[in-house]
Amino acid sequence: MAKHETPFLDQLESGPWPSFVSDLKQQAEVRAKNEAGVEFQIPVDCVEDLLGVVELSYKHGRTHWKHGGIVGVFGYGGGVIGRYCDQPKLFPGVEHFHTMRVAQPCGKYYTTDYLRSLTKLWDLRGSGITNMHGATGDIIFLGTTTPQLEEVFYELTHNLNQDLGGSGSNLRTPADCLGSSRCEYACYDSNALCHFLTNEYQDELHRPAFPYKFKFKFDACPNGCVASIARSDMSFIGTWKDDIKIDQDAVAKYIANDEAYPANAGAFRGSRDWGPFDINKEVINLCPTKCMWMEGDELKIDNSNCTRCMHCINTMPRALKIGDERGLSILVGAKAPILDGAQMGSLLVPFVEVNPDDDYAAITEIIESIWDWWMEEGKNRERLGELIMRQGFQKLLEVTGIEAQPQHVAYPRTNPYIFWKEDEVEGGWERDVVEYRKHHLR
Amino acid sequence: MSDLLNDTAAAEKLVVDFLTKKSKNKSKFYIKDFYKLFPDDKPRMIKKVINKMVEHEILEFWSSGSTTMYGLKGAGKQAASEGED
């Protein structure tokens, strides 16, 4: 029988979706039975007490967790988040119930053996409850006591070849898509860049340096499988400069509804009938910039007007391929709605080559100039996106040394006044009055 | 790096004195609060010195999960209430 009565939580299980309550109950039972003979290092009934404290929170309509703390592992200022229950007498198993963030492998590639090693470690030294993965992308271990933190850290770093992730005012665990390891749309090797920057900025990841959190995310193409444009302060999205490559024979096969050329890359094939493929309806008319048309049997694209939305390539992947001159765009300032509402990233660098041979110098130079500005000018708990809003995108261009370009313009100017700076005007503010009066009488 | 920040003992003393002076009202500080103590230095250099002081257990981190603050080791109410012995 359950240690605590949980009528509110039981009700949550009646919904149509998988419930975290059922998962917690299952885990509580597994720990109670302990068929694997684990020598639990934290209270065996911690999951029962977790259910109890969550139930109490529903009953009272307020939380019983104390926020934050001084816990951590030696030398690191992130990766561990202190969590304490304010009802330790009722729920001793979760009196200390800290969260650990663990860096996920690039592209979230795991072997089953490795996953078992992680869960084995956490069953022994923690609650066994994980969140795979947290909103930032890392592995979240939920619930352990202070003495176990160093033990878990040692195991992770010495035996599992893994590191803690970021939390607090740190660089957060960088996250990436599968990139060129599996995907034909990849415009750069997102795994390599993510891995390089994770190593390069170890100090920023583990020792708080910033006014607030800072997130990098890497999408190898504009499909944006990790949604970096919405989820990261600095988003690296693969793109190409030249033309979309067209195989006209393959286009003809799509139009002819050839079996080997299914539309939408064969998505839901066998379970959903999309009807016969119609290139006008499904591709040309859906192009957001209307830059595609048919000339006889040939598909034409005005590449200068293409915004890399990827729709045509996704729909006819055997006929259309990304260009060969590949690199990435950098967008900055996305954030969730704590201040000023949610923001998407703004385009800062339309195209930069991705060059591992010079340690991605063009990219790290931009990162560091932005950090220097934000660390100096950012207010406490101000995200980069908020600083850009406060001081202006123009200021961002100044600190990064990037010239204003048409791609930076989101919409035409609404303010008719232009405030020039002295150094932007030929001759500055000084004028030769005598010379002026030669042409203009008083 | 300024001479002040370069002189580890003097820099550490300045930080400790600042925190001790403020200790009646506050026990946790943002990294930016330390920038004012070293007006001639870049934030990154100051951060390195402050983080070294954490490593030497003069200071300690306090983290809410989203934001990190710094304080003298053992200062403040929470330090006392968090002992698990």
TrEMBL record, chain A:
Record GO biological process: sulfate assimilation
Superkingdom assignment: Bacteria
Coiled coil: none
Keywords: 4Fe-4S, Iron, Iron-sulfur, Metal-binding
Gene Ontology CC entries for this record: sulfite reductase complex (NADPH)
PROSITE patterns found in the cross-reference section: 4FE4S_FER_2
Boundaries of every 4Fe-4S ferredoxin-type domain copy: 297-325
PANTHER family: ANAEROBIC SULFITE REDUCTASE SUBUNIT C, SULFITE REDUCTASE [NADPH] SUBUNIT BETA-RELATED
Name this protein carries in UniProt: Dissimilatory sulfite reductase alpha subunit
Species whose genome carries this gene: Desulfocicer vacuolatum DSM 3385
UniProtKB/TrEMBL annotation, chain B:
Cited Gene3D superfamilies: Winged helix-like DNA-binding domain superfamily/Winged helix DNA-binding domain
Superkingdom field: Bacteria
Sequence ranges assigned to domain Dissimilatory sulphite reductase D in this UniProt record: 12-75
Protein name: Dissimilatory sulfite reductase D (DsrD)
